Amino acid sequence: MLIFANFFQVTKFNLFSQPLSYQPSEIMKTNQINQNLETTVFDLKNHNLTVKVKLPNGTILCINKITNNNREKKVSHHQEVLKQIRAGDNNSTEAAWLLIILWMLTQQKMENSVEAFTPIRPPHHELYGSRSPYEPRRPSCLFDQKERGESMSHADALSLLENKYGSNHITFEGDLKISEWQATKKICHGVCFGIKPEDYGAKQSDLHRLNKIGIARYVREGGRLPTAEHTRAYQDALKDFCEASTNLKNKDSTFRGSPSTTFFNEDTYQVAIFEPNGDLISAYKLSPNNADTYQEKGTIGELPKKF
Amino acid sequence: MNQDLNKKRHFELLNYNKKRHLELLKYSQDLKQQGKSIHDESRKDYLELLKYSAMLNRHLYWETRDQYLELLNEFMEKKIDITEFCDTFCRRSELNDEAVDMLNSNLILLSPHEKSIEFSNFMGQIFDCCEVCNGDPEPLRESYEIGHTEFQHLVEKIYFSLQKFLEE
Questions:
Q1: Smallest CA–CA separation between A63 and chain B, in Å?
Q2: What is the pLDDT of residue A108?
Q3: Calpha distance A42→A54 (Å, rounded)
Q4: Using a CB-CB distance cutoff of 8 angstroms, which residues of chain B are in contact with residue A281?
Q5: A214–B140: do the CB atoms touch at under 8 Å?
Q6: CA separation (Å) from B27 to A262, B18, B35?
Q7: ipTM over 0.85 threshold
Q8: How far is B156 from chain A (nearest CA, A)?
Q9: What pLDDT score does A286 carry?
């Protein structure tokens, strides 16, 4: 194991410590980076990578055609080697583990490298054109001032959001409600339900930022809001998910210790969580670990309210 | 994490049956090929297989602990902000989850480490912090959401508890 740990360090350094400053279309080939790593081919344009690892016994372990385009991955292994590393073969379990680490690191690094920085434009420029001089202003308040680096005041941001979303929502199953506001806040999880941001001219990194810094602050900073079609597609996907007969509804679940209603898919571990009043809390995909906890206790969220 | 559940998981880990895990994986794959699902055929088998997948998932958290710790250190030293921390943390966890699928589909099993249970509990708490983090001022936050100050405070607490756990 120690040998592999050392090997991993060397490989990790050689593979990923180089600054990713080359152009996305550039293809970098590195032959025999060290004794163990046979060949590595990066193709950043097509997000492909081939890794071949030479084992001490001379066998070559291969992961190729790792594609990270639209989250669809194709991973194939050398079948002969696979037979050796399947359960029970202790000699090569570490090698298998090494490949997984390489694969995970590569996925992350490639994803970071292809996300180009794009300027964020104030949403009011795109959504409504320039701000109208006739638009009534709200009374001055503590937040009604622009802060450094922000393109509009808090009051203006709220006004814009109220205009865009108001209390628009869809309802289903009687009392369940997905407001446009909440769907927009959580739209970064749309990928878990097949909603691809790029189909709506959005970037996942922007949606993550919206989710973390808050929708009002995101707008104040000039972040571009998802389009109405994008939000609606996410709302519809969640509605379809909850209405599908294959997904289990649990009215006695808890989210962070508070009562909730949860819809759960036992195959994919997707969940949609609602407050007791029917408002959407969030919807995403649980890890196998969290899915196991949910099946065992009906709870989601390990964070205690009072830490 | 509930103490009883923790104890139960430790018991399951001590009695981890690789042969049975493999058997269930093959059974599940056979059913999939027939267009069926294991949870429709046998609830007991489904839950047992889920337990094994969760065990593997926790072990992957444990095996990648250095990367999580590095990320936590960067956040504690304020080298990265909340957005970057949460993004990277969640992406790393997604990759772990995807790795479980990859291992399962190729029938590759790893022996879970006993510390993986507590470690993944800590990671679960951080994931929750990220999930409910909202930087908007209080009137715009839901009751279950936390602001950036609280997020910082909670992650610090988890970080110190985690350090203590790893030193044990």
A1: 12
A2: 58
A3: 18
A4: 142, 144
A5: yes
A6: 29, 14, 13
A7: yes
A8: 11
A9: 94
Nearest-by-Cβ selection for A302 from B1, B100, B157: B1
Provide the 10 A C-beta neighbour count for residue A18.
12
**Predicted pLDDT at A156:** 83
A232 shares a domain with A249: no
Look up residue B36 and give its two tokens. 């069926």
B43 neighbourhood in chain A, CB within 8 Å: none
Could you tell me what percent of chain A has a pLDDT over 70?
A: 49
Q: Using one digit for the tens of pLDDT, what is the confidence trace for A125-150?
A: 333 333 333 333 333 333 444 555 56
Q: Coil, helix or strand for A98?
A: helix
User: Is domain B3-167 classified as CATH 3.40.190.10?
Assistant: no
pTM over 0.90: no
- Domain containing A136: what range? 122-236
Predicted confidence (pLDDT) at residue B168 exceeds the cutoff of 90: no
Q: Which of A176, A210, A236 is the last residue of a domain?
A: A236
A149 Cβ under 8 Å from any chain B Cβ? no
The residues near A125 (Cβ < 8 Å, ≥ 6 apart) are: none
Report the distance separating Cα A257 and Cα B30, nearest Å.
38
